[in-house]
Design a protein that fits this description.
The protein has ten helices and no strands. It is mainly α. 26% of the residues are buried.
């Protein structure tokens, strides 16, 4: 569970309400017309900007944002080092059984490519293309929320302009109501900023983080597979792959490898 989104939303909305109530009234920030323009306009623009296939994937994207898949880079390194030991002692062809037992689809494909004795550079090219396509596909999915970050303030400003136009149109007839009309006009900007920075931006960041974790593990698999194909010592493979991790994420191994 991505608890930081929940904590962030509670803090953002809670402190915003606290700020409103500190000298003001919550009713001053509730305006149905402003909500319809900002929220309705934003989601209308989003629907118009993306194909049905992207909209259908939204439940899955929300699930990933709140319940991101767990990727453990160190675990992938440990698995690759073990595969390197097997290949070094028994030959690369014996990795076929390991490949069939691999839970990660990308790991399985990488090992099977090694077993098939394909050209090493060709394998590298195929794996790197797969990583690139995965990253691009995830970026296309995140584009919905990135677009929301841009559209929400724009429709908030649009609502403000609508309110100002309506206010100026009746200014001579009801000059006493200018203050209230101005406040109503500005509420839409408030809605737009809140929607963009508290809803869309955190969801986009959560998806970006999940993507980065997956891509890192795919890159570890790619580099590890190439090292196995080159016949590197398992200990050297571990050292090579751990360069891709932050120091705090590296599990110290007490036993030697050879």
């Amino acid at each position: 569970m991505n608890i930081t989104i929940i904590i962030g939303w509670v803090l953002a909305f809670g402190l915003t309400v606290f700020g409103i109530m500190n000298g003001g009234q919550i009713s001053n920030f509730i305006d149905p017309a402003s909500i319809m323009i900002t929220v309705g306009g934003t989601f209308g623009g989003l629907i118009a900007s993306f194909p049905i296939s992207t909209l259908k994937s939204l439940p899955t994207l929300f699930k990933i944002a709140f319940l991101p898949p767990k990727y453990n880079p160190q675990k992938y390194i440990d698995e690759i080092v073990e595969y390197a030991r097997v290949a070094r002692s028994q030959g690369i062809l014996t990795l076929e059984d390991s490949a069939n037992k691999a839970k990660d689809p990308f790991m399985k494909k990488s090992l099977l490519l090694l077993v098939d004795a394909n050209d090493t550079e060709k394998i590298r090219e195929m794996l790197e293309e797969a990583i690139s396509f995965t990253d691009e596909r995830h970026a296309n999915n995140r584009a919905f929320f990135e677009k929301g970050v841009a559209l929400a303030p724009a429709f908030g400003m649009l609502g403000t302009l609508v309110g100002l136009i309506n206010m100026l149109a009746v200014m001579n007839e009801n000059p006493e109501g200018l203050g209230q009309s101005m406040a109503t006009a500005l509420v839409t900007t408030f809605y737009g900023s809140l929607l963009a920075n508290v809803i869309f931006a955190p969801l986009d960041s959560a998806l970006k983080s999940a993507n980065d974790d997956e891509i890192l593990c795919m890159q570890i698999i790619c580099q590890g597979s190439m090292a196995i194909a080159a016949g590197f010592n398992p200990a050297l493979i571990r050292e090579k792959l751990e360069f891709m991790l932050a120091d705090k994420d590296i599990k110290k191994e007490e036993k030697s490898e050879g």
